[in-house]
Amino acid sequence: MRVRVNGPFRVFDDDGKDVTPLGKKERGLLALLLLSPGQRRTRLWLQDKLWSDRDAEQASGSLRQALSNVRKALGPVAERLHADRSTVWIAPEIRVDDSDDGELLDDIDVRDPEFSDWLRDQRMGRTMRGPTHGPTVLLNPQRRPIVVLRQTDHAASPRSSFLTRAMGQRIVGDLLLIGEMDVIQTEAQDQVLADSPPAAVVELESYGDDAEGYLLLRVVAMPGRRIVWSGRLTLAMTISQIWQSAEATRLVNQLVRKVSDLLAGLAPLSPSAAFHRAVRRIYEFDHDGLLRADDTLAKAQDGEFRGLALAWRSFIRLTSALEFRDTGPGTIAESLAFADEALQALADHPVVLSLASQVRLKLEGDLDAAHYLALRAAEISDQNPYALEALSQSLILHGDFEKANDYAMQARQSAQGLANSFNWDMQACLSALSLNQLDVAFNAALECHRKMTFYRPALRYLVALSYLASNREAAVYYTARLRRIEPDFTPALLL
């Protein structure tokens, strides 16, 4: 299959037949995908470029219809166009040929100001860079950090190839949830062309036979090719282990965290790095740190991070209310308003849905709304720890303690390797308490305390659980530790 983008936009199948969609919006949709990094975009991004004058529901319906029309036009090669609830992508990627003379996409006339702005940026970037040739042409006019995932399959087994692709898909999905970066997934032999060099390369190599697979992973800082992280994984050749294995989860989380840290070290500080530094400050549970994080997120909400920034600003106010007793009407009203705005801006992001669920549950007491949002988050990403945590909390208040505990355990496993994994140890403590498993709850709170020694909720529960176990010595010890960071604390406050 071949695509010509200079001059008249044309798509040809393997037999050379022209299968270019006839409709303007359909051709625009296909062009947007083909010229995007990794030939992948979110539904919201595509809707904004093609139907910016319509409300969210209308734009979503128009996108569904356009995708259907594009598939009909592509005929036998339509299987390369994929979509889920949040993302649309092409796989395997289609070769883009820009060897012909002529202006980029000169016969596509989509009358939407957002599409026009995008096309103007593409043409300007093409003019500044000059023509390029190769199996993949990627334009990056916004100069966002680029991360390349390079897969190498050293095993001859089809099972090994499948294992490698499944692991690569999981890594890409988790990287994309971070936010403002372009992720390019390639095979080892592919040439990747871009406006700027990648900030990092993730190398995934597989070895093995039909019985067992071996994966080697590396995060390489560019341009000096300095290895900043490496890991290995041994798995039986089953897809379920890629998605459910605790070892695989820990490894992917560590990899994603290392990539995030690497981007955060770029100079000047990118919006993505500033955003994730702000989120980390939220989990330090320092009042001044919360204020600084809120300032950073306030600036981020005017850009591509709008939905996520609003969701985290809402969560900051929830944290302030729970941890620092800032329960004034202004704090609660702002938290609820930010949560609503976040859902309007990014309704299909599992973290946005999860944070909004917690806000509705704890500040508004709306169990039904909280449960619906948590369910939506888990449907979109059933391994996302934020989604599983929100669902566990909702189920506890609905009285379904066994299922709540199951989700808390899954969340705890999915969070292994994350910088704030202690948060899910605390949820495991709460779910165990709902089942009256006091020893399990104590051990979960203790694990949380070991990871984050000044995290107040863990210390409070260690005090309470020590008294319940008639261990006065431990209760006094944890009370003293808690008073170092919360001087006015007394055990009577727990009543």
How would you portray this structure in words?
The chain has 495 residues and is an alpha/beta fold. 55% of the residues lie in helices and 14% in strands. The protein contains 19 helices and 13 strands. The strands form 4 sheets. A 5-stranded mixed sheet has the order 9-8-11-12-13, covered by helices on one side. It has a 3-stranded mixed sheet with strand order 2-1-6, with no helix packed on it. Strands 3-5-4 form a 3-stranded antiparallel sheet. The longest helix is centred in the middle third of the chain and has 21 residues, at 158-178.
Query: Beta-strand level of the residues, as a percent range?
Result: 5-15%
Q: How many strand elements?
A: 13
Low-confidence stretches: 128-142
Class by alpha and beta content: alpha/beta
Radius of gyration: 25 Å
Strand adjacency order, main sheet:
9-8-11-12-13
Kindly state the mean pLDDT as a whole number? 83
Number of helices: 19
DSSP helix fraction: 55-70%
Q: Major β-sheet, in short?
A: 5 strands, mixed
- Straight-line N-to-C gap: 69 Å
Shape: globular
List the SSEs and their pairings.
Layout: E1 2-4, E2 10-12, H1 24-34, E3 40-42, H2 43-50, H3 56-74, E4 81-83, E5 87-90, E6 95-97, H4 113-129, E7 136-137, E8 146-153, H5 158-178, E9 182-187, E10 192-193, E11 200-208, E12 212-221, E13 226-236, H6 239-244, H7 246-264, H8 271-282, H9 287-300, H10 306-324, H11 329-345, H12 350-364, H13 367-380, H14 385-397, H15 401-414, H16 422-434, H17 438-451, H18 456-468, H19 472-485
Parallel strand pairs: 1-6, 7-10, 8-9, 8-11
Antiparallel strand pairs: 1-2, 3-5, 4-5, 11-12, 12-13
Helix pairs in contact: 1-3, 2-3, 5-7, 7-8, 8-9, 9-10, 10-11, 10-12, 11-12, 12-13, 12-14, 13-14, 14-15, 14-16, 15-16, 16-17, 17-18, 18-19
